[in-house]
Amino acid sequence: MKPTPGRRRKARAPRRVVRPRYLILAASLLVVCSVVAGYLVLGQNGDDASAASGSQDRSVERSSTKSRKEPAWDGTVKVLGDGSTSYTGPQKDQLRAVPLKPGEKPPQFVVFSWDGALEGDDRLFSHYRELAKEYDAHMTFFLTGIYLLPKAKKDLYLPPQHPPGSAAISYPTDEHIRTTLTQLAAAHQDGNEIGTHFNGHFCGAKGGGDWSVPEWKSEIDQFYDFVEKWKTNTGYQDLPALPFDIRKEIAGGRAPCLEGQPNLLKAMKSYGWRYDASSPGDFQIWPSKKDGIWDFPLQMLPYPGGKYQSLSMDFNFLYNQSEGEVEGDPAKYADWEQETVASYMSGFNRVYYGSRAPLFIGNHFEDWNGGIYMKAVDQVIENICGKKGVKCVSFKELADWLDVQKPETLQRMRGLDPAQSPDWSTVVK
């Protein structure tokens, strides 16, 4: 089926394989995890513990935190380059990151993130931006760079291991570039984060998993280029500059199909990024670092019926419910929607009343199975973002908070079972 112009490609059916304990599928994020029902007591990984608690790592962490502090802003907007971006001062309305006090229970952080960040005809970008405002939440919008590049200029994109101008997703319409620019500006002004979903969304053979460190750097450089030169590439001189310097704004991203993290981590260090959301899934435990970068994976959530757990993203529910078909049986839509809500809420309740590990929910702007996955996220936002002790934040805000905590406290929290509600005086000292 030919993709609708300016929209993400449809989910393609995953490969048929015998389902092992963990089934990892290479499609649009596509990881389905089967595990024994019930809560698992999770031990501390020795490498992670060492990285989190070592004095050398902490000194580097403090140094990098200090270097990230913005200089005093003189109040003058600085238009950059060809006028596509600008510096408007430190972002407003951000979470104040402070260390936990002895015995204090951590906030329940929840991060809603969106891959692609295109404002299409469905207006889902603006919908979730407005919903975030309504519930005093911040979200992370992972922008795909070619969503600011006109199809007529597609040969400007030189994807690693692929012909110029090729991509695994559709290029946007001219109108969708304009509406996306408007939403990006508004999202940043609302306090949300703009991250990167890179450019061509290549998966599998010759995708991110096959890319070298220099190839990942080329992909990153081109992402920056498309954002910093959208006025030159589109000719739109009637739109204002984006109200952020994209090189200051980007703190991390999510690789298409969760592929290629090892070389991506090596590549992103030279850009000063602080987190990566490209891990192919993990338990609901407190985050740790990989190679000095915060690792924010999708998480395994209890699935109704208790037979297995599913990763916290729309595609994985799609696979479980309609075997990857984006137009499944309409008679089952209502039940599937409530199954999705129940899984998200089970994952939330497990940590909210337990370890308080952050909950990560990642989705796309899509209409699969009648839009039930969007409706499910709507319900989850409404149900949890106003609860006592809950902070719905961006990945960047979470990284800020983690950076100021004592590493030994994080190490103890990381050893908690997701459902374990400890005596916090023995954890936060």
The CATH superfamily is Glycoside hydrolase/deacetylase
Briefly note the structural class of the backbone: alpha/beta
What name does CATH use for the topology?
TIM Barrel
What level of helicity do the residues show?
A: 25-40%
**How many discrete domains?**
1
The low-confidence parts are 1-67
Sum up the overall morphology in one term: globular
Give me the Rg, rounded: 21 Å
Q: What's the assembly state of these chains?
A: single chain
Keywords: Membrane, Transmembrane, Transmembrane helix
Region (Disordered): 47-92
Transmembrane segments: 21-42
Protein name: Polysaccharide deacetylase
Describe it for me?
This protein is α/β, with parallel strands linked by helices. The protein has 13 helices and 15 strands. The strands form four sheets. Strands 5, 6, 7, 14 and 15 form a five-stranded parallel β-sheet that branches. Strands 1-2-13-12 form a four-stranded antiparallel β-sheet. A four-stranded mixed β-sheet has the order 8-9-11-10, sandwiched between helices. A hairpin with a 6-residue loop joins strand 12 and strand 13 (309-311). Helix 1 (46-53) packs antiparallel against helix 13 (407-414), helix 5 (213-228) packs across helix 8 and helix 9 crosses helix 11. Residues 47-92 are annotated as: Disordered. It comes from Streptomyces corynorhini. This is Polysaccharide deacetylase.
